[in-house]
Design goal:
This protein is of the alpha/beta class. Helix content is 31%, strand content 22%. The protein has a 9-stranded mixed beta sheet, sandwiched between helices.
Amino acid sequence: MPSHADHWTSPDGSITLYRGEAIETLLALDPIGADLCTADPPYSSGGLFKGDRDLDARGKYAQSGVSHFANFTGDNRDGRSFAFWSTMWMQRAARHLKPGGYAQVFADWRQLPTTTDTVQAAGLVWRGVLAWNKGRGSRAPHKGYHRHQCEYVVWASKGKLPKATHAGPFDGCFTHPVRQSDKHHLTGKPTALLQDLIEVVPPGGLVFDPFMGSGTAGVAAARRGLRFVGIELDPHYFQVSVDRIAATIAERKAA
């Protein structure tokens, strides 16, 4: 266990959450042999120009310009530093995947080309791009633009990808609106989306998320009775994750 990070473990030991910087914590942990790394890192996007990228996360991603969600850091890298940093954390995350394990990395349209490069630079085998259609509730552009209503998931494997025996083939496009009742982070993803994405994990498998945010991947894993390891730097969102995942475990136990 990393000595620098706070941590929380579920009563049955199936879920462990670490509060710490992603790269440092990934280096400090012994390899965990995960079936899936699902990651929603800071995009360092939000605009075509430096002034746009340098806005804080709330200024870039809150649709109304004002949000009650806590801000987060690490979202202001330029293109070259984003690619370098992405390669570093992906290399360290790949160390924790078992052979044939999956990686799923979220990106918006601006960072999609870079993300497809960095998964390969990290030594993973790029397998394709999944689309998440957020619907027309996404921020509307002016009338001359197509809506940016999709985000993307670059998916890859650690080496050869064996045939799944528990399910599949898996969908390549997902439609889930963002519902405020299910949103716990400024850039939080729908729980239903993560539940769909972790279908690649067999029963009893292990999911890990090095940018846990509000713990949605952990909630999805707990609902299926999967094991989960999560990492989150921000103390506020770390506690949000602990509370959500603990509540999910209690609900599943009571069902």
